[in-house]
Amino acid sequence: MLGELSKRKRKKLEESGTRAPATVVEIAEKGMTITSGNEQIVANTKVILKTKLLVEPEGQPSFEIDEKFRYSQFGIPSAGQKLAVIFDPGDHDTIMLDDNPEASINAAISGMGMDPAKADLAKNLVNGQMNGVAMADLQAMAAQFGQQQYGAPATGMPPVHGFPAATPAPAAVDPVEQLTKLSALKDKGALTEEEFAEQKAKILGS
C-alpha cells in the first residue's frame, strides 16, 4: 500500500528490525491523502509525503533514505525534526515509522539538545500527560522542567512533535453553552450523530 508496508512486513520489522532515531532532511510540501473508515472523522485521513531521512542507528553507520510515509494530519514533521523508525539491517529500503509512543518521545526529545537530566524530566512530563497523571503533579513537573531548561518556573513545556504541551486545566464552562455549541457543530455537518452523542454524554457526565 502507498506509504505503508504490508501487515506482514510491519510485523516482521517490529519483531526483528533495528530501531533507530532519524532526522528529517527534506519533506515534500504536498502529497496524497488516503482515508480509511469514516471520512468525516479527521483522524482517519492520513497524508502520504515523500521524505528524506538520515537514519542514525547506534553502533552502525548512518544512512539516508528517500521513502513515502503516512503521517497524521496533526503530526506532519518538518526538516530537522527527529522521528523514530524501524528498518531491516539487510535492506535499508524496508523501513517504517515506529508507532511506539515512548520511541517517538525519545527521538523527539533527543533532537532538542538537552542534557540527560533534563531529557529524563521532559520524558516523564510527556509520558505523565499521556497516561493521565493528575494535573497538579504535571504542573509541578513542568515547573521543574522550566526551571532547569529556562532558569524560571513554567506552567507547561514546549510541545514535542506529535504530542501536545502540558497546560493547566481549563476554567469551568456552562454545560448549556457547551451543548448549544455542540448542537451548532452537528447542524453544520462538522460532527456525526455518533460524535455528537459521545460529546454530549461527556458534557452531561453520563
The average pLDDT value, as a whole number, equals 74
Could you list the spans in which at least 5 consecutive residues all have pLDDT below 50? 153-170
- Structural class assignment: alpha+beta
The ordered string of helix (H) and strand (E) elements is: HEEEEEEHHHHH
> How much helix is in the residues?
25-40%
Cα radius of gyration in angstroms = 20 Å
Largest β sheet strand count, sense and barrel closure: 6 strands, antiparallel
What multimeric state do the chains show? single chain
Number of strands: 6
Given the structure, what is the number of helices?
6
Please report which band the strand proportion falls in: under 5%, 5-15%, 15-25%, 25-35%, 35-45% or over 45%.
15-25%
The first-to-last residue Cα distance is: 41 Å
Q: Number of domains in the coordinates?
A: 3
Précis, in short:
With 206 residues, the chain is an alpha+beta fold. It is built from six helices and six strands; from the N terminus they run H-E-E-E-E-E-E-H-H-H-H-H. Helix 2 (101-110) runs antiparallel to helix 3 (116-130) and helix 3 (116-130) runs antiparallel to helix 4 (135-150).
Overview of the molecule:
The protein has helices at 7-16, 101-110, 116-130, 135-150, 175-187, 193-204, and strands spanning 18-27, 32-35, 45-55, 63-72, 82-88, 91-97. With 206 residues, it is an alpha+beta fold. The protein folds into 3 domains: 7-99; 113-169, no CATH class; 175-204. Strands 1, 2, 3, 4, 5 and 6 form a 6-stranded antiparallel sheet that branches. The longest helix has 16 residues, at 135-150. The N and C termini lie far apart (41 Å). 20% of the residues are buried.
